[in-house]
Amino acid sequence: MNKVHNNKILFNKKAVTLIEITLAVVILAFTFIPVIGTLLTSAKDTDVFNSYVFAQTTARNILDTLIDDVPFHSIRVGANNEATFVNSTIYDSSSHSNITYDVTKFTEKLTNVRDERGTNYNVHIYVFPIEASENESVSANEIKFTYLTRPKYDEQENWFIYKNEANSDSFRKKDTLNPYDDAPFPCTEKKENAYLVGAKNHTNEKYCIMKKIVLTIEWTARDNHPRKIALYTLKANLDSEQ
Question: Hey, where are the domains in the chain?
Fold first, then answer.
């Protein structure tokens, strides 16, 4: 407030000029520019992180369903090893009847995948069957089953009894060697492929009893950069077959 002293007006020197106000606003603006940039970067990083979490969770859920529920022979190989899914019939040992599995519910999980932010995700599944050759020689790229053959005494009707040197039945004594180490009953190591152990030859699968599966999810986050994750697993043929 201005004061009157000896007929003179004294101006209050504490007043702020327009230039000072403008300068203060400019300084304040330059101060907040890095802060705003940091906040924007943090928001983008959070969005990218959330999209990765969503993609990984979705991928695990799809693979869990594929491993636990989808029958082995419903997973077929399409063009460029991309998976196709067909209905298949498996034998249910508990009910002693054939059950047809409908793949529709599973394939619905692979389409229209979108998170709460509206980001769309493209899901692809690729299948690589591990096949077996129809011969007794096991190649390097086949699954090998290594085991010890049954000892001679195990082939008898009563496996715990064997013929001794006197050609009479007798129980095995406690102080004798382990049956797998006993010289009269040698056990040899044997290697076989899926064909030799009795796998069935389904359409275009060549005695396949295990498939390598790769699942990929691709999307474009809000930072306009393409993103992608890939998960790898194996599925064995554990379905009941007649």
Answer: 47-131+208-242
